[in-house]
Amino acid sequence: MPSPSLPPSNGHSGQNGHHEPATPWPAQGQLYDEAYGQGNGASQLRELLALLWGHKWIILGVFVIVVSAAAIYTYSLPQQYQTSSLLLIKPDSPSTLVSTRGRSVPGLAEDRSISNQLFVLRQSRELAERVAERMDEMYDEGEGPPMMYNPETGERHSVQALTSRLASRIQASQGGEEIDAIRLSATSTDPEEAALIVNLFSEEYVDFARDRSRQSVQATYDFLESQSESLRADMEKAEQNLVDFMQREEAVALDEETSSTVSRITSLESERAQLRIELEMNRSRFNAQEENVESIEPQLAERIASDIDSELARVQEEREQLKSQIEQAQERNPDLTPNSDGNALERELARTQARIDRLDARAEEIATRYVDQALAAGGASPGEDSERGVGYVADQREQLVRQRIEISGMEARLSNIDEQLAENRERLQELPAQSLELAQLQRERRSAEQVYSFVRQQMQETRMTLESEIGNAEVVRFAGVPSAPFAPTPQQNMILAALLGLVLGGGFVIIREMLDTRIRQPEDIRGIGEHLIGVVPSMEAIIERDFDGERQITIDDRTVPTTLPMLVSPMSAVAESYRRLRTNLRFARPDEEVRTVAVTSASKGEGKTTTAANLALALASAGQRTMLVDADLRRPRLHTMFDSAEAPPLVDVLYEGVPDPEVFSTAVDHLYLMPGGEKVPNPAELLGSRRMEDLIGDLEAEFDYLIIDTAPVLLFSDAMALSPFCKGVVMVASAGTTDQRALEHAAHQLREVEAPLIGCVLNNYKAGDSASRYAYNYDNYGYAQSMKRLDAYYRDDDDQPKSRIQQWFGR
């Protein structure tokens, strides 16, 4: 029965003798593919597992190398110890001062979110310098932790060098999602050194946070204190001048109108003095915060030090003028209120108030735009990643810009008060000289008293704020000396190395398989478009098992190669594969019997001579008179396999004619051998000659089958010269040796000369090798399973097959 992989016939004859249309033969491999689902997920998984199992020793080798390298690296590293402390970050304390008019003075409280504190810990070199200076003071020369000394020279590091080393050792992270805490940790080869670094950083950070929170408040208090003494002296001098003038001039009091004007001037002067003090306080706080931020981002002060936008200044000045007009009108008429439905003055007052509201909105819009532009100029925005510190810098920048806007508004207010004072002073100039001098002295005294009282009140509030500032950080848990090393972790490293070794080994095998273009299974031959007519398993296992690895044995006083299973092991799976090849060859062309077959290969060492010899033996064992011709005149070997050197060689027969066929007989029934003979200088011309064609015709008339062994196609042109005289050509490929491109190129060259190529035979196929994906593609119906079952069928009953586990351990 023909094999499913036989080529299609051109047609067949029905019972009436007429030809009917040929039934399309399934494509190469289609029967198995459709019947058994080749290419599905399960098949691909089996292929992958088979590939990995077949290269298990490579994977194991990579695994051992990776694990060994990881072990050497792990145990060569010094032990690292890590410890940590926990800092609690308290909520912001109410450190914002409030002026007498109820206007908040921003800038005394800073953003103390966890992300900002982490940024300061990671970026502030000042903090590391404080720790380095403290460590340098704690230990004398020759004392202290190892990090204070150069390991090579033994010299003590400078404070600057120690600062850099400390900054690289400390790590800060959030202490938890539900709590406002920071975890400080350090790693060192000395456990006591690690604990010392963490604890010093924790203590210095608490002091650093307290000093930083007091910085702006202290600047305000120092300014107020310096102003208090001079204002007290001014107040006492004003009182003494008033007393002296009244005693000298016997002045008693001013009239009501003059007294009202003096009171207004006094009020304006007092307000101006207080505003100037607040302005200086804001400037002092602004400068202090600017210095603090400048230590983190040095170019920040330059970016925001420009004057306020002229448009914003104009809007604020106009607003203050309109507000002053409303205040003057209400002072003259206390019952006057803005009313759009009232009298003419009330309607005018309502329009002025509406214009002030519009100016307020305009000022806010300009201020917001100015802040956005300042932030953009600084390259950051408040919404950026605060973990990297950009959010913290943006927050500080926004605070500074808004403070500058407020300072500009206070300056505009101050300018408006100066204008009002000038108007009221002109009114006083109209008074008599005595009344004018008395009014001025009373005004100076009242103004000095109010300003001094304001400054003293501010000093008290500032002192209370300063004393209440104890910082927003507290050490909850100091770092202890670790008892066990933090790194390296041998167990974890070995597990990761094992996983990595398996992944690298498997990846290497897969990549190697993808880059390997050698033919390994029948599927590869079909993949390049060639027809497969037979698969011959490797003889290595049988030779090793049955013949102790001997390449030749003696049968009836004759030396027989063990590579001829048709002679030495006729009941083996290998011999059965040659019988199957014989059957496939008989039905290769249903309309024409192929009696003359040339056997060749792409390159040397692929088993064409062995295949030709065993195919001839398979035909002879079926009772067919078979002539085996050694036409490989480059390297004739058939005569050594059958020990028949006495027969006339092919070269002599071509020149002298065909002798009696019986001179070519061998010890095997129905098998005749014509050896190649001596090497000739022109084998291709001789094999492609008319004499060779006539010789083949004569042999076809004498024998049932003619098997011709020829030289490799890619090495010599002999096969291409001889193949047109044959009815069929068989290409032999060796599994694991023949390159796909070489086989494809050899087949192409044969077709170029119109050689009747029947198909290919896959030789030396290792059916028991699980690396062959083909063994799993066709499952129980595949070549591998069939050959293994044949081998098991012919094996003695007492010789039980070994399991995979037994094979693994070699038992």
Word description of this protein:
The chain is an alpha/beta fold and 811 residues long. Helices cover 56% and strands 10% of the residues. β10 and β11 form a beta hairpin. The chain starts with 11 loop residues before the first strand and ends with a helix.
Proportion of β residues? 5-15%
Q: Label the overall shape.
A: elongated
Q: Tell me the number of helical segments per DSSP (H or I, 4 or more residues long).
A: 28
Structural class: alpha/beta
Mean pLDDT rating: 77
Poorly predicted regions are: 1-38, 93-112, 298-308, 377-390, 770-781, 797-801, 803-811
Q: Main sheet, how many strands, which sense, barrel? A: 7 strands, parallel
**How far is it from the N-terminal to the C-terminal residue, by CA?**
40 Å
Strand segment count: 17
Radius of gyration: 54 Å
Side by side, the strands of the main sheet go 9-17-16-12-15-13-14
Question: Could you estimate the helical fraction of the residues in percent?
Answer: 55-70%
Topology summary:
Elements: E1 12-13, E2 19-20, H1 30-36, H2 41-54, H3 56-76, E3 81-89, E4 97-98, E5 104-105, H4 114-123, H5 125-138, H6 159-169, E6 170-174, E7 181-188, H7 191-249, H8 256-294, H9 300-304, H10 310-332, H11 344-377, H12 390-428, H13 433-468, E8 473-477, H14 490-515, H15 522-527, E9 532-537, H16 540-546, E10 552-555, E11 558-561, H17 565-568, H18 573-586, E12 596-601, H19 608-621, E13 626-630, H20 638-642, H21 650-656, E14 671-674, H22 683-687, H23 690-702, E15 705-709, H24 718-722, E16 728-734, H25 740-752, E17 757-765, H26 774-777, H27 783-794, H28 804-809
Helix pairs in contact: 3-14, 5-6, 5-7, 7-8, 7-13, 8-12, 8-13, 10-11, 10-12, 11-12, 18-19, 18-27
